[in-house]
Write a structure and sequence with these properties.
Structural class: mainly beta
Oligomer: single chain
Strand content: 35-45%
Shape: elongated
Number of strands: 14
Radius of gyration: 29 Å
Helix content: under 10%
Order of helices and strands: EEEEEEEEEEEEEE
Distance between the termini: 123 Å
Number of helices: 0
């Protein structure tokens, strides 16, 4: 048996996982910047999303700190470990998505409907629907009518919605929305009704010069 002792402290690394005994690898998380100390300190790396069936873990070392400056960044580039035993508890299936920040463009006469946008779409997809008061899809907005915006957000595998937004952003204004989330947290539906103002009629009154009663 050969024992290798390296007096360096890991400062930054990527973690890769394999579910097929090391044949293929996927980056699962990263450490960020860890501060060097001269004592043993436990560190935690949070994976981007839960993973089941992991057979191997590999650390890709990006930087280390030694007891002396000359030992800085002298390290083995990658260390691979096999995973043995079994899971003691069930892996959480889904990661929570907090209330998405949604922005919409208000309808205006002669304009075509615009899709909403989100500041961060990680873990879900967005579908935008515009209909009139009769639930008919809209291709162009008209004056004097109401229009319903319906936004359907669908969580991807490994994610679920845990919080709903009370408002969405329209221009510089926050407007209230009705929100519903499915029981399994996989689908969220937001709705809001907009009104396009009716056109104002300009009435001109002609006067007759030298009118005599």
């Amino acid at each position: 048996m050969v024992r290798l002792q390296v007096m360096v402290i890991l400062q930054k690394c990527n973690v890769h996982i394999s579910t097929d005994d090391g044949k293929t690898w996927t980056k699962a998380g990263e450490s960020g910047e860890w501060t060097y100390t001269d004592s043993d300190v436990k560190r935690t790396i949070t994976f981007d999303k839960p993973v089941e069936g992991v057979t191997n873990i590999k650390f890709e070392v990006l930087s280390t700190k030694g007891e002396v400056t000359s030992n800085d960044n002298k390290f083995i580039n990658a260390a691979e470990f096999g995973v043995t035993g079994k899971e003691e508890s069930e892996v959480s299936k889904d990661w929570d998505i907090t209330a998405p920040a949604i922005t919409a463009v208000a309808p205006a006469k002669g304009e075509t409907p615009k899709d909403v946008t989100a500041t961060d779409e990680q873990g879900y997809t967005i579908k935008t629907e515009w209909t009139d008061s009769e639930s008919v899809p809209v291709t162009e907005f008209e004056a004097g009518k109401d229009y319903i915006l319906k936004v359907t957000l669908t969580a991807e595998d490994g994610y679920k919605f845990s919080d709903i937004p009370a408002t969405i952003k329209v221009g510089e204004t926050d407007v209230n929305v009705d929100a519903e989330v499915s029981e399994n947290g996989k689908t969220m539906v937001l709705t809001h009704t907009f009104s396009v103002p009716a056109e104002q009629q300009n009435h001109q009154i002609k006067s007759t010069e030298n009118w005599k009663g």
